[in-house]
């Protein structure tokens, strides 16, 4: 009995010491709150799109460099991608950080629809918060490693162009995660959850048709409409939907269709996404889409070429790691609104068409399994190293990603509070992994089991180089 009591007391003392140690990291995140909010608001204002996030990347690099991290910029052939490393030896824990905005949507930081004149993009997915929280967590973990003398390396990955550019895939392909034991990530959202989640694999491509221009009234017989090629392809693709697996998703947007009705357009472009949980089905479906484009060109007297823009694998979950993340999320708690936050949210709520309540921002969702219909290039990381993630309530409950409401809340203290919570969850999780190497062993065992004994990583991108200009208008004569 005495031995049992003694062991229990030792465990309590050890737990108290660990809690005291982690306070160093939490205090650093709290101390940096104002600076983090300022940094996130700057990136929110820049709203730079994929592979063009020059100022956003530079700000994050400076924050980490000033904190003592070694910066390696321009990794994987991408000017805005970088790593920031502190420490030596193992375990090596990687923290992912994004910072690209979405084109075609923008909004002021107010609770009613108010686009910003002259602005062509916005942080409708909250990546301005993502990168800053992850960097703040990495700095806090560095402080903990430094104070405790614990062995290990913390590495921040500055990963651009998540929105359709597959930035992380190029980092994976270049072997930048080979020495990493565990990778952690998070994402802005309208709730606090750490689900054991899978996602869809996704492959996208731009199909560019070329024809012959002519006067649409005076000499139509001399023209061959590139837009006809696009429309014929779209018609065949929509008929193809019936014959795709039920879980598949296909969507497109015509990015160039001509300038005026009285000129037969000699150039047109359509941008397609193809999704399914199984990457092999995505490969096959995309190949069928290519054949549809070739048939459309043949039938309209035009020519077509396509460029694969991005390809990402589905997310491989890790239950063991998600349990640890969820426990730390529960310790940190949800987002607590101030009176000003509540007033903002109440004005925003009518535009959401939701039955969700503001109280949900304070709550932690139960740990559960789910499948997300969207896609993320974190998927390729998760097939390379055991990976865990979560989301915090950086938006008003009920807000959809890629909406003006997400842009609005993300530029206010509502978003900044969720960001601070995310930084703490990341830091606590990383520290727990350093303190308990058995966690890493168990996570790797599950990782190996889920991948299977004969797993060979394959990128859906093939050997293409990063599409650094995929957000640049390629219409002839365009800017």
Automatic annotation (TrEMBL):
Keywords: Hydrolase, Signal. Pfam families: M20_dimer, Peptidase_M20. Residues 203-291 form the Peptidase M20 dimerisation domain. It comes from Sphingoaurantiacus capsulatus. SUPFAM superfamilies: Bacterial exopeptidase dimerisation domain, Zn-dependent exopeptidases. Residues 1-19 form the signal peptide. NCBIfam families: amidohydrolases (TIGR01891). It comes from the Bacteria. PANTHER family: PEPTIDASE M20, XAA-ARG DIPEPTIDASE. This is Amidohydrolase.
